[in-house]
Specification:
42 helices; 5-stranded parallel β-sheet; mainly alpha
């Protein structure tokens, strides 16, 4: 039905326009066509009742043109929104605390939590009202977070839409204009344009071909970070004009993205008059154990039951139109309702539905005779069950079908359940449905009947029709409170419940968007409840693969885990693949122990199905993780086993990969010639196969080996060819890894600007995709670069971040490098004792991991730290520094790492000269300079000057 005033489309049967609130002419509840006053359906929708196959289960619903007095049903608002009763002390204390903080321009972050039905949402609304009464200029913005299938930022989308004055269903161009105008008033210029475009993305009114958003479209995590920054900038400036109270309801059911944005805002709005109020059940702290655990000031307010006198007062307020309540009813409300506001609401509705309170237009009265024969339930669950029991059977059936869809549901989904249930239950009927003639004769009457029935249930406070549907073109509803849906769903007979869930899953999958990521997850949930574990696992797996492809790693882990829980024990092949995929995501996130467990399960199942190739893959994956952790002998053992299995299976790809992986371990062990033999053999096999991705892997690994052998030109050639292949493949992990290698090569050649450019690009990608080990490795390099350039503050920030990540990952190689560089940083700042301690820690870690190159670096660093004191107590050369330098040089000579040897010789030779051993120092410095020249590395100015002075 289009509004005659503004031409906005409205739901069939609507009485006023949702946009301009103009009164609409009478229109059909089924199709929106004009109808006579007092009629709900047009002639097209008032066809004869459908045959059984098309929905006779609704036959008991009263005729649509029933008594017009039904339309005069009392306004439910008196039940849903009575005057606020009780909690005066808590409300007064909270509002006073907030008003005081806002007056001092201090932000407030608090959570109102409690059991279901305790009135948390109403208390939050009253709190906002109280703050506004005290500070009339304050603005209160609120939004619900939604359930598991809700969009990531639904609550903030609603909050910002309200702030910008965007109405439900507003055209995109108008909404974008409002966003741009509101932001420009606060942030003029280019910064305002950037914030407006990012907030438009957050509010789901994206700016077409945005030069700010478009470049980030392929980097979801980076786009998310930019949206967070834009939201914080906007709220920071907006709050300076007038205090803001932001209320997020149902935070316990919010997706992680919403909670992350809430924490981001709370941590970065110091000095602004802003209140962030999270409202949710006590399970909030179970779902998000780290909720509000950061440095920001946080207040946790527990909302408990009403005091007995407040419970009695609230019930009296609910029943006020009927006059004074009987003493026994008041006593029941005071003593048996557990102080739950929701239970008191449901009790009042129950008394209305059972006739204990009789309605006669605007006048109500108590029917004491009916009260004597009506049991008074106690707990909320008993009340809801009692209300359900006294309902008309057809209404109860309709609610059961709605509950099978979920807390939110759609008109056509309920219609599909009605028609599908009738079809499945018919005897001798055609499995392909009624004839076309029957359908033509029936029209769409049962859809219209369902719409009218749902509207009546909404007027009675059980359902709420949503203004905006998550599925385009559908009329969406939700249950007025989650417990209603839970009680109804549990009351459905088990077999019928499973059948309903299966039909809902089919209805969702047949929608145009049914193959989307969110939809597949929702379909998986329905199939799981239908008892179709294998079908659910397939849908969860599809959704997980999409999430993994977008680097939504947390979501991918959750969905792969759900798929495994649902999968039946007989599908071993799918189980093997799921454990492998889950392990790969854990490995990407740096969760090594979890990944090892996943691959161990893959290995166990591979043994069961006698699959040598899958067992080999599992061994290889485990070997790579042990290599990353620094357990090199264990890594080599697993990789050798994997190679044996690949050879037994005649798997050429696997053999090539194993050879290359083994070469990498040998490289870390300092066995460069053996490493090059294995990796080169792997590359040769991969070139024959023609797998570009694998060829790039081998080239990168050979580049590492050649660089350590001092063959920089050969290393660069390998890195560049690998980078080109990775870029052509769109492999972002590979691109970042290649850039990291090129950065190390540039640094060793003395090209510091080139090194920074490569590393910063690598870090950008690594952070976007959540590759924690790569992030830590690049941060170590950037920290070392900053230290070399004198940026000690930047160096400390980067190295400490790398050390934290390395500790979390239990990556001994990364830990050794981060701690060693932190030691050299302390040395640069004059903290010799601490520097020595950190370098000793780095040496112990490297020796434990068995990585010679890191052992050598730690020894040289200890030589530098001890060389601060050139002479010992006897006046002789500091033997401790001398010993560390000698051991470091010997280590690099033994493994043939000429680049590191050159650096070690330079530092040892400088120490010797400074100690007075000019001849010995000159010899070392000369060898170092020769190596630098041969490798194409830049010797330091100090060394060149020193050799010139020495002659």
């Amino acid at each position: 039905m289009n509004c005659p005033q503004c031409n906005t489309g409205n739901h069939p049967g609507a009485s006023s326009c949702k946009r301009c609130e103009a009164e609409l002419p009478p229109n059909c509840c089924g199709c929106g066509a004009p109808v006579d006053e007092g009629k709900e359906l047009c002639p097209s929708c008032r066809t004869e009742r459908l045959p059984a196959a098309l929905g006779a289960e609704l036959a008991d619903i009263p005729e649509i043109d029933a008594d017009p007095d039904d339309e005069a049903a009392p306004d439910p608002e008196f039940l849903l929104a009575p005057r606020f009763v009780g909690r005066a002390g808590l409300l007064g204390a909270l509002s006073a605390r907030i008003v005081e903080s806002l007056g001092r321009a201090e932000p407030v972050f608090l959570a109102l939590t409690g059991a279901a039905g305790m009135g948390k949402s109403r208390l939050a609304r009253e709190l906002g009202n109280a703050v506004q009464r005290a500070l009339p200029e304050a603005r209160v913005l609120g939004g619900k977070c939604g359930g598991p299938a809700a969009p990531p930022f639904l609550a903030f989308s609603r909050i910002l839409a309200a702030r910008f004055g965007i109405e439900e269903g507003e055209p995109g161009r108008t909404a974008r204009d409002k966003i741009a105008q509101a932001v420009a008033e606060l942030l003029p210029g280019q910064r305002g344009v950037e914030v407006a475009h990012l907030l438009g993305q957050l509010v789901d009114y994206p700016f077409p071909e945005s030069p700010i958003v478009e470049p980030l479209a392929e980097a979801p995590s980076h786009l998310e970070a930019r949206m967070f920054i834009a939201a914080r900038r906007f709220f920071a400036v907006d709050a300076e004009r007038a205090p803001i109270v932001v209320v997020l309801d149902d935070v316990d059911r919010a997706p992680p993205e919403t909670v992350n944005l809430l924490h981001f805002l709370a941590a970065g709005l110091d000095g602004r008059p802003l209140v962030l109020c999270a409202v949710g059940r006590e399970s909030l702290y179970e779902t998000y154990p780290a909720f509000a655990s950061a440095d920001q000031v946080f207040e946790r307010v527990q909302v408990g039951p009403l005091e007995p006198e407040d419970a009695e007062a609230l019930f009296a307020e609910l029943c006020r139109p009927a006059g004074d309540a009987p003493p026994e009813v008041l006593r029941h409300a005071r003593e048996k309702m557990d102080g739950s506001p929701r239970a008191l609401f449901e009790m009042a509705r129950y008394l209305l539905e059972t006739g204990v309170i009789e309605r006669g237009g605007a006048e109500w009265r108590w029917n004491r005779g009916q009260l004597l024969s009506t049991p008074l339930p106690g707990r909320i669950e008993e009340l809801l069950a009692a209300r359900l029991a006294v309902m008309d059977a057809s209404e109860r059936d309709l609610l059961e079908k709605a509950a099978a869809c979920g807390e939110r549901f759609w008109l056509d989904a309920v219609v599909a359940l009605i028609r599908g249930a009738a079809l499945c239950g018919g005897e001798g009927g055609d499995p392909d449905g009624p004839s076309l003639g029957e359908i033509a004769g029936a029209g769409d009457r049962n859809r219209a009947e369902v719409a009218v029935a749902l509207s009546r249930l909404a007027r009675r406070g059980l359902l709420v029709e949503q203004q905006h549907s998550a599925i385009p073109g559908e009329r969406e509803y939700r249950f007025a409170s989650p417990p209603w849906r839970d009680v109804i769903h549990e009351s459905i007979e088990e077999q019928a419940r499973r059948r309903y869930h299966r039909l809902v899953a089919q209805w969702l999958e047949l929608r145009p968007q049914g193959r989307g990521e969110e939809e597949q997850e929702e379909i998986g949930r329905h199939l799981e409840r239908a008892g179709d574990g294998d079908g659910a696992a397939l849908r969860y797996r599809r959704a997980a693969e999409v999430a993994r492809g977008r680097y939504y790693n947390d979501k991918a882990v959750r969905l792969f885990s759900q798929a495994l829980r649902c999968l039946g024990p007989g599908d071993l092949a799918s189980r093997i693949q799921l454990w492998h995929d889950l392990g790969s995501v854990h490995q990407l996130r740096g969760e090594h122990d979890e990944a090892l467990d996943d691959f161990a399960r893959t290995l166990r199942l591979s043994w069961v199905v006698a699959s040598r190739s899958k067992a080999a893959v599992a061994y290889n994956k485990m070997g790579r993780i042990y290599r990353q952790k620094g357990d090199l002998p264990v890594a080599l053992e697993h990789l050798d086993r994997g190679l044996d299995f690949f050879k037994q299976a005649s798997d050429e790809r696997g053999i090539a990969g194993s050879l290359d992986d083994i070469g990498q371990v040998l490289w870390l062990l300092g066995r460069y010639d053996d490493a090059l033999d294995r990796s080169a053999a792997g590359l040769e096999r991969r070139r024959k196969i023609g797998d570009k991705r694998s060829i790039a892997v081998s080239l990168l690994n050979i580049g590492h080996i050649e660089r350590h052998r001092g063959l920089f030109d050969e290393a660069e050639s390998c890195y560049c060819e690998a980078l080109k292949l990775r870029q052509d493949l769109g492999d972002r992990v590979g691109v970042a890894t290649c850039r990291n290698g090129l950065g190390v090569l540039a640094f060793q050649r003395g090209d510091l600007d080139g090194a920074r450019q490569q590393w910063e690009e690598a870090l950008h990608v690594a952070e976007e995709i959540g590759a924690a080990p790569l992030v830590a490795a690049v941060e170590v390099h950037l920290g070392e670069l900053a230290r070399a350039l004198g940026g000690l503050g930047e160096a400390r920030t980067r190295l400490e971040r790398a050390a934290t990540i390395a500790n979390d990952l239990d990556d001994r190689r990364l830990r050794s490098e981060a701690v060693r560089n932190l030691g050299l940083l302390e040395l640069a700042g004059g903290g010799t004792a601490k520097a020595i301690d950190l370098c000793e820690q780095a040496l112990a870690i490297a020796e434990g991991a068995g990585i010679p190159v890191d052992v050598g670096r730690a020894l040289v660093a200890l030589g530098e730290a001890n060389a601060v004191t050139l002479f010992d107590d006897t006046g002789g050369i500091n033997r401790k520094a001398e010993d560390y330098f000698l051991r470091g040089v010997a280590t690099f000579r033994e493994i043939g790492n000429h680049a590191e040897l050159a650096v070690a010789l330079e530092r040892f030779g400088t120490f010797r000269v400074e100690c007075g051993d000019v001849a010995g120092g000159r010899e070392l410095l000369t060898e170092a300079q020769d190596l630098f020249a041969r490798l194409g590395m830049n010797a330091s100015e100090d060394v060149r000057r020193m050799l010139g002075e020495l002659g």
